[in-house]
Design a protein that fits this description.
By secondary structure, the protein is of the alpha+beta class. Helices cover 29% and strands 25% of the residues. It folds into 2 domains: 191 residues, Chloramphenicol acetyltransferase-like domain (Chloramphenicol Acetyltransferase), CATH 3.30.559; 233 residues, Chloramphenicol acetyltransferase-like domain (Chloramphenicol Acetyltransferase, 2-Layer Sandwich). InterPro entries: CAT-like_dom_sf, Plant_Fungal_Acyltransferase.
Length: 463
C-alpha cells in the first residue's frame, strides 16, 4: 500500500491492477488515420464526481463491477487495451495486443464538498487523476471519505478526441448498469482515406504545418517562473452574462453564437493582458477545435452518417486567426467576433476536412502540428474547444446515482494553452469553463473580468 501526501488531504492507493479485454483479441496493428496524425503526443483527461449512493452499496462490489464492465467494454473498444508503436516509416500506430489498462483504486481523506473545484491542480492533479505510464489509457476510481466517488481517466490524445472518449466512457457506464453501449465504435480506416491523387487548396496549409523545432528564444530577465507556469482553473459563467456578451458581439443583424462571442471575448482580453504586461505587439492567436464528423458525411446518406457518428479516433481541425495585440485590444468586440466567425465558417465544411486528409497524405511521414503553435516569433496561442455537444450529465450514470460534476483535465506537464466550455449541471443557461493558461494570464482575467468568470465552488454545484 502506497501513500500520496498532499497539502490538503492524503490519498492511499489500495490496489493497482491491469484490466484487459474479457475476450482475447487477435494481435494486430491498427494504423492511424490522416486526421489522427495531426494530433501531437500528449495526454488529456476527464473526471466525474458522484455523491454517496442513496442505497447501501458495498464499496468493493462497486469497484469490482466497474472492473468487470471495463473488461467487457474493452472487447468493443479494443485499441484502448493496446499500445502505440512506430512502424518502419516512423509513423505511430496502435498495436492491438490486449496489454490492458492500468486500473488504480485509492481512497482519499476528503469529502466531495471539500474539493477545490476552482483549482484542480491542487485537488485533482496527482491525487484523483491517474498518470498514464504506458498503454493508451489509465483509469482511477477514488473512494472519498464521505462515501462519494471520483472516476477519472487519462487518454493518449492521439487515439481519441473528446467525442471518442465520451463514447467510450458513456458506453462503459451503460455496461456497468447491464445496458447496451451507447454506440458500437467503428475503427474502419477507409472512411478517412485520401483521394488518389491527393489534391487540396492552400487553406489546408495555413491551418497545419510540419513540426519543426523553433530556435530557442532568449530568456526574458523579467520573467517569473511561478507566474509564467501554466495552471488550470475552473469557472462558471452565468447565462445572463453569456446573453449580454452575445448581444455585444452581434451587429448589423448578424447574430453570433455564444461560442463565437465567448471566443472573441477571450481573444480580446488576452490582447489586453499582453499590452498591459510588457508584451506589447506580440501576436495573439485564437484557435477553435472543429469536429468534422457531421461535415464529412454531408450529402452522403445515412450509411456514411452512421459510420462517422461511430468513428473512434480524431476528426478535428484547429483553424485559427491571429492579430497583433496592440491592434486587437482596441478593436470592438463585434469586429473581433466577425473575424472568429469567418475563420470558423471556412473550416466547418466538408471540403476543408477532405482537403485536410489529402494534405496530410502529401506530408507523411513528417510529424505535423497546428500552425497556430508553430511560429518562432513571440506569440500567445490558445485553443478553445466546446464540450456542450457532449451532454455528459445524463450519459455518465454507472448505476449508483446521478453525476454531480464532470470535467476535462489537462495534465500540468502540457505546455499548450487550452480552454474548454461545458454545460452546467445546475443551470442549463450557464457554462462551466476549464482554462489551462499561464498563472499571470488567469490572474489578469480574474482581476479584469470577474463579472464573467466566477470561481467554481461546491456551493454552486449544490454538493
Amino acid at each position: 500500500m502506497s501513500v500520496l501526501i498532499s497539502e490538503d488531504f492524503w490519498v492511499k492507493v489500495k490496489r493497482t491492477e491491469v484490466v484487459a479485454s474479457k475476450q482475447p483479441w487477435h494481435d494486430h496493428w491498427l494504423p492511424f488515420t490522416n486526421l489522427d496524425l495531426l494530433v501531437p503526443p500528449f495526454d488529456v483527461g476527464s473526471f466525474f464526481c458522484y455523491k454517496k449512493p442513496h442505497e447501501p452499496v458495498d464499496v468493493t462490489t462497486m469497484v469490482d463491477a466497474l472492473k468487470t464492465s471495463l473488461s467487457q467494454a474493452l472487447v468493443l473498444f479494443y485499441p484502448l487495451a493496446g499500445e502505440i508503436v512506430h512502424n518502419s516509416a516512423g509513423e505511430p500506430e496502435i498495436h492491438c495486443n490486449n496489454k490492458g489498462v492500468d486500473f488504480i483504486e485509492p481512497t482519499a481523506d476528503v469529502e466531495l464538498r471539500e474539493l477545490n473545484f476552482h483549482n484542480p491542480d491542487e485537488s485533482i492533479e496527482g491525487k484523483l487523476m491517474p498518470k498514464r505510464l504506458h498503454g493508451v489509457l489509465a483509469i482511477q476510481v477514488t473512494i472519498l471519505k464521505c462515501g462519494g466517488m471520483v472516476i477519472a481517466s487519462m487518454f493518449d490524445h492521439r487515439v481519441a478526441d473528446g467525442y471518442s472518449a465520451n463514447m467510450f466512457i458513456s458506453s462503459w457506464a451503460n455496461m456497468t448498469r447491464s445496458q447496451p453501449p451507447c454506440l458500437l465504435p467503428s475503427f474502419r480506416r477507409s472512411v478517412l482515406n485520401a483521394r488518389r491523387p491527393p489534391h487540396y487548396t492552400r487553406y489546408a496549409d495555413s491551418v497545419f504545418c510540419p513540426l519543426l523545432i523553433p530556435p530557442s528564444l532568449p530568456l526574458d530577465p523579467k520573467s517569473d517562473p511561478d507566474q509564467d507556469s501554466l495552471v488550470s482553473r475552473i469557472y462558471y459563467i452565468a447565462g445572463e452574462q453569456l446573453k449580454k456578451l452575445q448581444l455585444l458581439a452581434s451587429e448589423n443583424g448578424c447574430r453570433r453564437s455564444k461560442l463565437e462571442s465567448f471566443t472573441s471575448f477571450l481573444w480580446k482580453i488576452t490582447a489586453s493582458f499582453l499590452e498591459d504586461s510588457d508584451q506589447s505587439g506580440h501576436m495573439c492567436n485564437i484557435a477553435v477545435a472543429v469536429d468534422g464528423r457531421r461535415r464529412l458525411c454531408e450529402g452522403d446518406g445515412d450509411e456514411k452518417g452512421n459510420l462517422m457518428a461511430t468513428h473512434f479516433g480524431n476528426v478535428l481541425s484547429i483553424p485559427f486567426v491571429g492579430m497583433r495585440s496592440k491592434d486587437l485590444k482596441d478593436m470592438p468586440l463585434a469586429s473581433a467576433a466577425n473575424k472568429v466567425h469567418d475563420f470558423l465558417k471556412t473550416a466547418a465544411t466538408k471540403e476543408h476536412f477532405i482537403d485536410l486528409i489529402d494534405w496530410v497524405e502529401d506530408q507523411r511521414p513528417k510529424p505535423l502540428t497546428s500552425r497556430a503553435f508553430a511560429g518562432s516569433e513571440k506569440a500567445v496561442s490558445i485553443v478553445v474547444s466546446s464540450g456542450q455537444r457532449l451532454s455528459i450529465m445524463d450519459k455518465m450514470d454507472f448505476g449508483w446515482g446521478k453525476l454531480v460534476f464532470g470535467s476535462c483535465h489537462v495534465p500540468s506537464t502540457r505546455r499548450d494553452c487550452y480552454v474548454m466550455s461545458m454545460g452546467s449541471p445546475i443551470k442549463d443557461e450557464d457554462w462551466i469553463v476549464y482554462m489551462h493558461l499561464p498563472k499571470k494570464h488567469l490572474n489578469y482575467i480574474e482581476a479584469n473580468a470577474s463579472q464573467m468568470f466566477n470561481p467554481l465552488t461546491s456551493d454552486y454545484l449544490k454538493i
